[in-house]
Amino acid sequence: MEKIAFLGLGHMGAPMARQLLVAGHPLTAWNRTAEKTEPLVADGAVRAASPAEAVRDADVVITMLADPAALGTVAAAIVPALRPGTHWVEMSTVGPDAVRELAARLGEGVTLVDAPVMGSTDKAAAGRLGILAGGDADGVEHVLARLGTVTRTGPPGSGAALKLVLNAAVIGGVALVAEALRLADALGADGDAARTALAAGPLGGVVGRAFAEGVHFDTALAVKDIALATQAARLPVFDAALEQLRSAAADPALAHADLSAAAARIRTA
User: Fold this and answer.
1) Which of 8, 127, 181, 263 could pair with 65 in a Cys bridge, judged by C-beta atoms 3.0 to 4.6 Å apart?
2) Each residue of 29-44: pLDDT tens digit?
3) Beta strands in the chain (DSSP E)
4) Would you state the pLDDT for residue 208?
5) Is residue 163 annotated as a catalytic residue, yes or no?
6) Are 214 and 122 in contact (CB under 8 A)?
7) Mean pLDDT of the chain
């Protein structure tokens, strides 16, 4: 079994790392807040004191970090420590530009795969994520399959690009549903009836996400994802959604709450 270094144990990273530990992989874990490694260490993982220490003996390195800035900081620490033959699987939502910047920094013999995921914390805990793998994933596909269903997307950066497309559509759709229900409220329509009718139509999936329970996707991370998308192309509709989400995330009580809480705020704003 490959030795795996897992860096980033947030809401998504922790259950993903656990899936690999349960599968029998020797696992070294690192997180900026060291306390978050404790549940994994209690079950047999090794805590690393630094990113470089985590990856030094790893066959596979997995990063699941908050944003391009966090990824850049970790990359600066681990690139000198990566051995030839190491596979680095970058699973954060950071966009294709960040993936290309990583590839340019790597030494010879290190394989970079961009493999962001679709699905929330419930899918991560069940090993049923959708994994969008760009680049040469042959050496790690069997490892990624422990986390969910792997879809090959094409050359390096293609997984990161497709993830932005899909996330922007879902997040923008959630904002749209919230505003549609605000319209229903303004017109005096029954809110439950409006929600049921929307759920029965083409927007059914995003209606479900707007009211989801038992999952977690930080509103602040949704803002980050839409911002990355609007930097890549002229997207007036997503610009409007970004403005609404930024307004919601400005409330400290909502910034790290699930996206569904931001949808509720948009509906009543």
Assistant:
1) 8
2) 999 999 999 999 999 9
3) 4-7, 27-30, 46-47, 60-63, 87-90, 111-114, 117-118, 129-134, 148-154
4) 97
5) yes
6) yes
7) 97
